[in-house]
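Input/output pair, single chain:
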Amino acid sequence: MDVEQIHQLVSQYVADGSMLPRTTEQIALNIENYIVAVNGHRVVACAALEEYSPSLAEVSSVAVAPTEHGNGLGTQVVLGIERLARARGIGEIFALSLIDRFFIALDYSPTAISRYPEKLSRYETLTSAGVNLVPKRCFQKNLEDNWSVARRPAKSKRTLRAS
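Output:
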């Protein structure tokens, strides 16, 4: 159930270039790397952890249903990804975003994407396959002993879970 709903949610943001396309197969193969927020039985927010090495990962596929914007669900799923990364012993995470204030509010620092040649390599592969990439800002966070607490509690009908 989550795979198809995650795919539908992420696909809403592919057309404007704010998110890279994901197939249902890609999501299914990596479902243990997703955190979702649900309202009833409907996935209304998601984020994924893309591991590059045992110590480095990217926060990716951060998407919130338009009807849920402003409810803190994006923050909740990103904090869930941070907890997942810590549980796996990952010390540094980064994210690419068109919205600077979102990651800055979560204590990420602006950085250069050139620090992450693994990501640049993926971008080169996508560009050569004809995918149009929208330039985004890069943000970084060290996770060692830096546990963030959500500033806003989730509303009662919404729950957060690993997918």
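The first strand starts at residue 34 and ends at 39. The two ends are 10 Å apart (CA to CA).
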